[in-house]
Amino acid sequence: MSQAAQKLPHMANTQAPPAIVLDKVNKWYGTMHVLRDVSLTIAEKERVVVCGPSGSGKSTMIRCINRLETHQEGHILVDGTELTDDTRALDTIRREVGMVFQSFNLFPHLTILENCTLAPIWVRKMPKAEAEELAMSYLTRVKIPEQAKKYPGQLSGGQQQRVAIARALCMKPKIMLFDEPTSALDPEMIKEVLDTMIGLAESGMTMVCVTHEMGFARQVADRVVFMDRGEIVESGTPTRMFEDPQTDRLKLFLSQILRGH
Amino acid sequence: MSQTTIDTVAVDPRYTVARESPPAGSTGPWGWARANLFGSWWSTAVTLLLGYVILRIGFSFISWAVIHAIWTVPTSPQGTPDTAICQNAKGIGACWAIIPDKYRLILFGRYPYQEQWRPAICCLLFIGLYVVSAMRRFWRKELALIWIGTLILVGVLMWGGVLGMPLVTEDQWGGLPITLMLATIGLACAFPLSVLVALGRRSTNLPAVKMLCVVYVELIRGVPLVALLFMASVMFPLFMPAGVNIDKLLRAQVAFILFTGAYLAEVVRGGLQALPKGQAEAADALGLSYWKKTGFIILPQALRLVIPPLVNTFIGSFKDTSLVLIVGLFDLLNMGTVALSDPPWQSFATEVYLALAVIYFVFCFAMSKYSRGLERELGRANRR
Amino acid sequence: MSGTTADPRMLGKRSAPKKALRISWSDPRFRAIFWQVVIVGFVALVVWYLVGNTNRNLAARHIATGFAFLGRVAGIPIGESLISYDPSVDTFGRALVIGILNTLKVALLAVVLATILGTLVGIGRLSKNWLMSKITGFYVETLRDVPLVLQLLFWYALIESLPAPRQALTIGHVIFLCNRGIRVPDLVWQPAHTWAFLAFLVGAACTFLWNRHANQRQAATGQRPAVWPVALALVVAFPLVVWAVLGAPADVELPVLRGFNFQGGSTISPEFFTLLIGLVLYTATYIAEIVRSGIQAVSLGQWEAGDALGLHRGAVLRRIVLPQALRVIVPPMTSQYLNIAKNSSLAIYIGYQDVMSIANTTLNQTGQAIEGIAYIMAVYLTISLSISLFMNWYNAHIALVER
User: Fold this and answer.
1) Does residue B265 share a domain with residue B120?
2) Inter-chain contact B20–A36, Cβ cutoff 8 Å?
């Protein structure tokens, strides 16, 4: 079980079933064992940051949660439903889980507004006017309502990533997954995206975030999970993890990324 | 932080899971078959259906082409081949006997029998030229000299008249040398033309020249090669002053040069466009004149970029040489049809065409494989 | 931030000064004019020389000029034509028009069939099934490396080796394959069929309107009424009902062997069939590669983003992947269509009488080579320019908007 099931103020309702449960998940690419007995429980409204060196399996793990990758052994439960080959269950789960990608993946042939309303119209079967109102409200929340009629190619990287966040939010998911959301951005744009994510966290969203931004982790995360070579090595509160690492591998990783801190 | 390096990190037994092997049946040949052939119901059905069709077609083809095929026929008392067994085996076995009987006619045309070593050497020279041009360590200015030298040597060998070799005029040439000649000389002459036309098309300060180049390219690209060959064979005699006679081969060659030149011009133009503007700007800043800038900076880089599409254009050119049959030139394909006009062999067109197809395929496939390998290599080198 | 006052750069109160042209070698504009005059002058001189020679040669051979021959009686036998033709009465002009129709007939049919086959093969190349992707790869590689003329001659030789009509191969005693062509049954066209065809057109138009209505309902309420069942009913069931109500005539004229050949039904000539098969199989290989690279050009991230939003595979394909793939596919596809039009001129090698073949015969008979060649080039240039225009319009219309 998780090492930090503390009752933090925003997690008042921890009688609810956990948002995500990974139970002894194993995944192979051919003969390469990329996820090794990964077990993790994430409660509702909990904010978890996953970090680790490249190749540690953190992106793979997070992509298994909305079945962009499939695991071969173990169980993954999202909001009480188990992830299997059952496509109907999968559709239900994907509606409740939003994902933000490292390379934004906005649809270049649709306007910003159309990017955001596509899924609500075709998946949640919303009327167009209602979907557009919803999209505008989220675009306002990420602070770019004036770009609604433009195309992704006309926006900067930071603006595109904020649109990607708004697009995922338009499906009103219960859980948001972030796969290295700022790694492809120029330095001056990272702050605007992190500010958006902090605002999202403060509104009570369950978040699982793979990132190298340790400042963000310190400010927002309830728990930091450190992965290396396919397994979870250590986890705990950000303060404890950064100031008092227990394992040598975490010490090595921190020394590599926190140079000068 | 302590001096923890990757080598001194101790392996903590609590966090090391014993290395498990992947689930049984997901790797190895059976695993591969399950993933790639029987991955789903649909995939299994397709595999079974395709497998059946391939086996049926494969067996009947091998039965026709190999097992029941007839490789030689006896000679009748008159000295001509007696193709009775072939006729009887029609539809059951291929009659490959036509190849040993006719291969010299097909490959070398009506070139005098004793002198056929000369076109044979020419073919080898052409192939050698392609191989040398393909090797990157020969991509220097000297390559142009190698091309010119080889073409002159080919000319000397084919015509003769010197060094004790009897003269053989162009109307006796035929077969593979004609094909190779049309394609190679076509490319050799079209290349400089295409560079000039591409540069002309990009020159914004000479609008009349640009218009001329556009008209040339769009006109040639809009009409089929057959039309150009007709134009060459019918109209060129009218263009010349009375009494001047242009050889058929030359007419076709000019048509090929004009045709290839237009397509190559577009390819070169693509290369010129792909070059970053900064290159030209840097050359201008150094004070280089237009021709120096183009010759030293722009063209060497742009031409490197376009070598794969250039090879593809050459492959197309090589295939297009088969069209000269319509203007009465005896290239490889036409010699095949001539061989078929011999009465004993008249009904074995399929065998001859298959053999010709193999020859064309060998040349074109080798070139296309080369071009794709080159694209990959150059793509890697260009990515910084 | 830009203020609410107008940008002074855009107001146009002052314009750039014009410099006078100096007649001097150091003025680049003068040099440009000079070189253009030289080059254009040189080309004009060459053209004048060639035209002069041509006129002299034509006069010496007593060859007429001008297009008057279009009104003369042709006397060219034409094997197949879409409009009526009588060699002893109809003019060269009419014969040439028939040539154009024949060319268009084979080209349009080849375009449709090659697109279908090429798309299927292209998708097959991307299949996860190893056999499928290897077999399609083999097909694409092999046919691209053999000249089209050789392929046409090969198919023609195969058809020639079919048995004579008396021993023709048959499919169900309804379709007959012999070396004189493929005989197929012919539908006897009745008024009921015309009505059924009109019903089909009406049904297609109504389907279009229903689709618009479905879009509006979805925009308003979020629920989309079923489109496919209605479309099927309008386009398939409705014409069938009309046809049945008007008596359901289904008289078919079967080809019947009389003497040495078949009577009745209609023929697909060996030449047409060879040209069609050759063009379709050859061009489909290029189209397959275009489709494959178009689909691969859409990055995996687009699929994943669509999946992550909860859209199912069909919707991801239709709304996200296909629009982007088509942008990459359509330009090279239109140039393949142009190639089909140009390659149809290879009809002359197997005796199919398209515009190239008939124009060639015309210019042989009248001796007027210049006019004949000019006619051929005009026809093909018209076809290529129309396709180019369409492609330019399409590219401008769907270009992705970027900074």
Assistant:
1) no
2) yes
Q: Show the domain range for B50.
A: 6-88
Residue among A28, A31, A251 minimizing CB distance to B4: A251
Confidence class for position B9, pLDDT limits 50, 70, 90: low
Pair of tokens at residue C61: 């051979």
Q: Which residue has the tokens 């306002």?
A: A140
Does A28 contact B at CB distance below 8 Å? yes
The C-alpha torsion from C87 through C91 and C95 to C101, rounded to 10°, is: -120
Q: What is the pLDDT of residue B150?
A: 93
Residue that wins the pLDDT comparison between B200 and B41 = B200
- Domain match, B58 and B195 both: no
Q: Note whether C129 contacts B36, CB cutoff 8 Å.
A: yes
Residues of C in contact with A171 (CB under 8 A): 309-310
Structural domain total, chain B = 3
Residue that is last in its domain, among B146, B172, B198: B172
Interchain CB contact of C62 with B (< 8 Å): no
Are B58 and B187 part of one and the same domain?
Answer: no
B68: in domain: yes
Which of B172, B205, B223 is at the close of a domain? B172
What mean pLDDT do residues B226-251 have? 86
Residue B139's pLDDT is what?
A: 77
Is residue C285 within 8 A of residue C143, CB to CB? The reply is: yes
Q: Smallest CA–CA separation between A112 and chain C, in Å?
A: 12
Partner B contacted by A72 (CB < 8 A): yes
Q: Considering only CB atoms, which chain B residues are within 8 Å of A252?
A: 4-6, 9
To the nearest whole Å, the CA of A74 is away from the closest chain C CA by 22
B154 plus B246 within the same structural domain: no
Residue A1, pLDDT above cutoff 80? no
Q: Which of C221, C303, C309 to mutate to test the interface with A (most CBs of A within 10 A)?
A: C309
Between C87 and B56, residue with greater pLDDT: B56
Instruction: Tell me whether C381 touches chain B (CB under 8 Å).
Output: yes
Residue B345 counted as domain residue: no
Q: A212-221, B57-66, B256-265, C244-253 — which is least confidently predicted? A: C244-253
* Amino acid letter, B55: L
Q: What local confidence, expressed as pLDDT, does residue A4 receive? A: 41
Residue range B123-139, pLDDT digits in tens: 999 999 999 888 877 77
Chain-chain contact of A118 with C319 (C-beta, under 8 angstroms): yes
Contact flag B238-C54 (C-beta cutoff 8 Å): yes
| Whole-prediction pTM | 0.81
Contacts 24+ apart (CB under 8 A), A41-44: A41/A1, A41/A2, A42/A2, A42/A18, A42/A206, A42/A208, A43/A5, A43/A11, A43/A14, A43/A16, A43/A18, A43/A19, A43/A206, A44/A11, A44/A13, A44/A14, A44/A16, A44/A17, A44/A18, A44/A19, A44/A174, A44/A206
Residue C310 to residue A68, Cβ atoms within 8 A = no
Residues B366 and B291 in one domain: yes
Is B352 within the bounds of a domain?
no
Tell me the chain A residues in contact with residue C2 when contact means C-beta distances shorter than 8 Å. Answer: none
Q: Which of C43, C131, C376 sits opposite B51 (nearest CB)?
A: C131
Residue B123 and residue B16 share a domain: no
- How many beta-carbon pairs under 8 angstroms link A with B? 45
For residues B131 and B78, membership in a common domain is answered with: no
Q: Does residue C150 surpass a pLDDT of 90?
A: yes
Whether B283 and B224 share a structural domain: yes
**Residue whose token pair is 């190893």:** C130
Residue B320, pLDDT score: 94
Report the alpha-carbon angle A246-A249-A252, nearest 5.
100
The per-residue pLDDT of chain A, averaged, comes to 87
DSSP string, C340-368: HHHHGGGHHHHT---HHHHHHHHHHHH--
User: pLDDT tens across A148-187, in order?
Assistant: 999 999 999 999 999 999 999 999 999 999 999 999 899 8
- Mean pLDDT estimate for chain C: 86
Residues in B touching C40 (Cβ below 8 Å): 208-209, 212
Instruction: Kindly tell me if the per-residue pLDDT of A6 is higher than 60.
Output: no
The helix (H) or strand (E) run that includes residue C171 is strand C169-171
Query: Are B15 and A233 an interchain contact pair (Cβ–Cβ within 8 Å)?
Result: yes
Q: Does B205 touch chain C (CB under 8 A)?
A: yes
Residue B14 lies in a domain: yes
